Amino acid sequence: MTEKKEYRGSIHQWQKDLMLAWYEQLDQAADTGSPATVSMMISGNCVELLEGFGAVPLYPEVNALQLAIRHQSLDPILAAEDLGYATDNCAYVKADVGCIVKGITPTGGKLPTPTLILCNFVGCNTYLKWFEHLAKLQQAPLYVIDVPFMRANEPSRSDLEYVIKQLQETVKKLEQLTGSKFDYDRFRQAVACSSRTEELWSRIKHLARRSPSPFDAYFDAITLMGPLYVYRARPEGVEFFEAALAELQAKADAHKGVYEQEHFRLVMEGPPPYPYFRTFRDMFAKWQACAVASTYSTVGGLWEFGFRHDPDNPFESVAMHMIAQNVTNRNFLQRYEQIRRYIEEWNADGLIIHFVKSCRLFSAGQGDMRDYFTKQLGVPTLYIESDLEDPRYFAEAQTKNRIDAFFEALEHSKTATPVREET
Amino acid sequence: MPFLAGIDCGTSFTKALVLSEDQGQPCILGKGRTRSGVKVDEAAGAALEQALGEAGLDRRQLEYVAATGFGRYGVCFRDIQVTEITTAARGAHFVIPDTRAILDIGGQCTRAIGVTDTGRVKIFKSNDKCAAGSGMFIQRAAKYLEVSLEEVGELSLKATHPQPISSVCAVLAESEIINHVSAGITVQDILRGIHESLADRAGALLKRVEMTDQLTLIGGVARQAGIAKALADRLKVTVNIPQDCDFICALGAALLGLKRLTGRRSAADTLASEYAN
Amino acid sequence: MREWKQSRPGAKVIAYFPVYAPVELIHAAGMLPVSLYGAGDRLDIQHADARFGSFICSIVKTTLEMGLTGHLEPFDGFLFSTICDSARNLCFVMRRNLPAMYVDFLRLPHNPSSPAAALFLAEEYRRILFELERLGACKVHDDAVRHSITVYNHHRALIRKLYEVRTRYPEKVSTGELYQLIRAGSSLPVEEHTAQLETALAQFCSRSVKKRDSIRIVVEGSFCEQPPLTLIQLIEDAGCYIVDDDFVIGQSWFEGDVPTEGDPLLSLATSYLDRSVYSSVRHDFRKPRWDGLVQKVRRSKADAVLFLIAKFCEPAYFDYVPYKQELERAGIPHLQLEFEEKSFTFDRLRTEIETFVESLIFD
Amino acid sequence: MRIAAGVDVGSTQTKAVVVSDNGGVKVLARALVDTGANVQRAAERAFDMCCHEAGIHSGDVGFVVGTGYGRYKIAFGNTQMTEITCHAKGASFLCPGTRTVIDMGGQDSKAISVGANGEVLDFVMNDKCAAGTGRFLANSAEVMSISLDEVGPLSLKAKHPVKIATVCTVFVESDILSYLAQGKTAEDILGGVHIAIAKRTLSLARRLNIEPEIAMTGGVARNVGMVWALEEVLGRKMLVSPDAQFIGAVGAALFALEKLDQSFESGIWRGDHAVSGGH
Q: Domain B98-241 - what CATH class?
């Protein structure tokens, strides 16, 4: 039998409760119209700004992935395709649109029509189309924060000014819509909270450099990402991540890993196949292969290399986070560099590239990435294709076959004692 | 009374139909059918001769020839060419006048056609790359599963745990079937799965054109494999299959020919009468 | 293009990826801007699909294939602009694989409602211009840019005129012909091409051709990867007059002239934000693209819209939905087709187009 | 004398090989059956046929390694391994000096970089959009109603091979139909198809560092047209073993021998002996 070892500490339940509380707030907002809600993208989200209005974020992406994990994504996807969406459109968008059309929510609870659809256009072009369609569909006001992606290694002064101006325009927009004044002090406190949460999160990420790693920085990191995006800028968030760090620190100090024996250390690139999340994880668990770092867990923000929000420069640091400190708004070669550092500093044995057909921003060019890591750096790399939301693109037998072959080869090169296969 | 022919040059068979008009009522006089092969013109000629033989006519008596289907441009003695979608609508509407939706499951692809009350194509959607889309796909599956196309229908009814085919690409779907087999799943369950997913995809297509409780099913391969039943069960619709439905397109072509011809005539008549005065 | 280079020792040629590029800046720097539309079916992909996997459009792969197989050597630089995510990543894959070449990305703003957008874009133009100056070891003065703007204003005005003629008298100039004429400009010096356009315009107007019994359609969706010429001709043969389209749209990007007074870079920036044509890769929530399409249909008195979408072109796929909704609201029939620049058998497409025409002409 | 076996359950055919180690490793027998709809039965039939062919009792076989997509259905298998690992092993045994393996299977096509001892250094497999290369030929043959064995020889007769642009098996079928309608000859169409597949397979292999010797494995290696086309685009000869289609099974059998040797030291496999012996 294959090992099923995901992180199940006390914070696991805590995390669930936090997310539940979030959904309850949204449910309440749907009924009473308060608190104010703002649709946003996960990537480089500016949740701190919302705190200045006591507004709650609404993440279409989170809804979409919740559906997929619960194996409920296909119906809404088909509903969207009936509207004319192509099979080759991003399935996140299709699932989200399908839900609104069919009145489905992942939890079964209610979701409010957002006070503002705030398209924090970070990276992915699909975000623009997605939120534009949502605004058309939900008849809700739309504002775009147009965030220039990283053409160079550092953002230019004009990039920063452009975004800061738009953040201030967003504040005005929200003041009109909510009828309440922007609370600058609360905003600064939120930024301060974020910087503390980020410090804790970064330390957790660095625990994965230990061998064995106390948690899986891909599969387990995803469970921790919910609170990170929703509660980062609130005391609850700080509290939660303090507990998480303490628990994982203890585990690391006791040399407890994800598996009895950590056989392989991996870096994961690309989002997971949510509709087959468990199946996919088991394919790695069978080989006692643990992810020590992942690019997907830096979609909302890249903190393990030192960036923190700055309460003394709240607007500028929010802008900086949106422009330069999340993986999707950084350019493709910067992602190569990020992965290279993971492989070296988190000393990994290999790289898994998971191509998801929905997200071209993540996946277009990953073949070149493979070329760079295998031919330039000689890093064992596996390239597999499926999707993060659409169950129709996961070929279980093929995927398993490739993963098994990869580890059979890696095992030989490591001359590790063979892990016997079971059916 | 005028004699016309409609010729449908399909990828595998060429069908010809001779038509005439009796007190404003179109009536079918003869039919002919032959393998298409590579020489469209010859096949068309052969099929036409058959039809004429059955009608007791010869080529010179024909006033108008309308060609349709994949090889329509290959018929050099045609007066007009019309696509098989347009002719399918016409033909089906003639045989089953209250038809509003047609499903055409051909060897290569599946098409859904929405039809107006006059038999005109209102809207249509083709599905050419989709897995369970084509009859060819079922043929291959049957071949791979070592069952004859005739058995497929009955076998799929014996399924206990149908295995859906989820892929939206024919190639990947074939792999899925192979994987099901490798996983030791029974032939019956796989076949039913194929039928159900085909029905679902057909349903999705129909939703995008015209969903009615009366569905007209035409097209070659698929019908033999008990898909009609799968469709009826899955989509909860009555599935009408017009008799000798391989001739639907040829019929539609001939009817459109008749339309053009009478149109031309009346034009000619008015012209003549103008000269008379 | 090669002659152009030979006749001007040391002169640089800058390739750019469709849709939009600041040709005025390249021209002002004394360089030749060349719009690259992939390799069509002239090059079969043998290296690029190892770099860009499944579900990626053809033009991205053929463009990279050209780079990996030395077909881009005559170019000194390659300029990308905001189109889609695949194009954005392609820019940086090219940077890695063609280290000798100047590869840059022009980031166009998506929030025209913000007063900051124009300033940002002007700065972005300034950055590109600075890079071009460095590449060409030259200084580009505002007057040079103003001059280039004038030249291209004239060029674009001619294209607009040609489109008007085609819309009004589609029998006089086939779209196949017009398309070839305008596309030829993507690799010619603008002055040369302007002359060609002038002759062609005069010639078209003087023609007298009998009108066919055809339906009038607008073709939408081929703003980046271009359909094979045979496909365009096939559409016309099937009984369609194409009365408006978005082929090689970069060549006619502005609805009016770009003002030459004041800071030319700021003028280009404000023109992009306020005077550029709608397109699936340009976002302005003040004036929705679907309104643009419906207006286009009305303006050109078209009977229907034909969506000609490049396989795996996500921006076009997305826009199809609101376009479809608005066309249906306005009672305008439409058909959606998919193509690849490298495809060459069209039997299935032909059947669909003919059926579409038949469904509009037969009662 | 140690006797071990490998069983390769492929999507269309199931192959079994029995090897012995008596100072030197030697292939005793090979057997091939159509996989069909019952994988388990196919595996048993192939294995029994092979033992019979070798003149041994299935109980004499000390260890069985299963490979191929049906590997988990081999009830009597002691362990399983992917065909990628087995092809590398088998190729470097049957074609000494192999550094690159090219295989076109029914499920997917692959290219493998092989080390000096037949270990896998790196491997790549087809993208989703280029899936089913192995079936690509079969489908083309079917569309043209030509038997699969004929297509190779016919393709060699091509005078002006047609152009095949798409890598998609589905769209290729409509291309072929159009060509037939245009009256192109079967030879020229098949010529085009073979070259297209060869180019696609090579562009797959280019993701590795292609090093000589290059061995072609799997059933498609029996197709002279395919071998010719590949060597044409490669610009060099390939190693093609007469046992090409058994290479996966041979590799599996060789691993079985190794396991057998380990197990005699550690004794861990005794239990499994009983299983396979009692079979």
A: alpha beta
